[in-house]
Amino acid sequence: MADKGHHHAHDSHYHVVFPVKYRKALLTKEIPLAIVNVARGIEERYEIEFEKIGTDLNHIHILCSFSPSKYKGGDVVRIFKSITARELFKRFPELKKDLWGGEFWSDGYYFATVGERGDWNVVKRYIENQGKTEDTAQLKLLT
Asked: Phi/psi zone of residue 89: left (φ > 0), alpha (ψ -120 to 50 degrees), beta?
């Protein structure tokens, strides 16, 4: 998606990965859907597009786009982690039993640019296939 601002244009896509605190396998059942719902609110408020979100049991993959003149990668990660964690603890108070200390996500993250002409489709498919096994169908989160 090419985006144009008043004095700039960008076509920037990013692959972001980070784990649940203590690598706990908590991204099951309704948690991924709740994360997607929260992400939609983040999109509207912060002008960040979450193109794909995929989860495995203990980590999340995000393919997103945002204006590099407005945000740094670490800003987007901080926004996503803090808002989703707060909302998950509100919606699922039982998570606090598994995550003492009040943090849902680990401190670290992986962040890389993704080009539409080369590896974008590869990364997109990889994220779509997170959590898939031969016995279960992947929950399609964002299209």
From this structure: alpha
Q: Which two tokens stand for residue 79?
A: 């926004």
Give the SS3 label for residue 15: strand
The whole-angstrom separation of Cα 88 and Cα 86 is: 6
pLDDT on residue 143: 44
Instruction: Provide the residue ranges of all domains of the chain, joining segments of one domain with +.
Output: 10-128
β-pairing verdict for 110-114 and 13-19? antiparallel
Alpha carbon distance 1, 13 (integer Å)? 8
> Residue 32 carries which side chain, given as an amino acid letter?
P
Task: Provide the pLDDT confidence category of residue 128 given band limits of 50, 70 and 90.
Answer: confident
Run of H or E including 79: helix 73-91
pLDDT at 1 over 60: no
Lookup: tokens for 45 = 């408020």
- How confident is residue 102, by pLDDT bands cut at 50, 70 and 90? confident
Residues paired with 65 in a beta bridge? 49
- The average pLDDT across 96-101 equals 86
Topology of domain 10-128 in CATH is: Alpha-Beta Plaits (3.30.70)
Q: Say which residue, 41 or 113, is predicted with more confidence.
A: 41
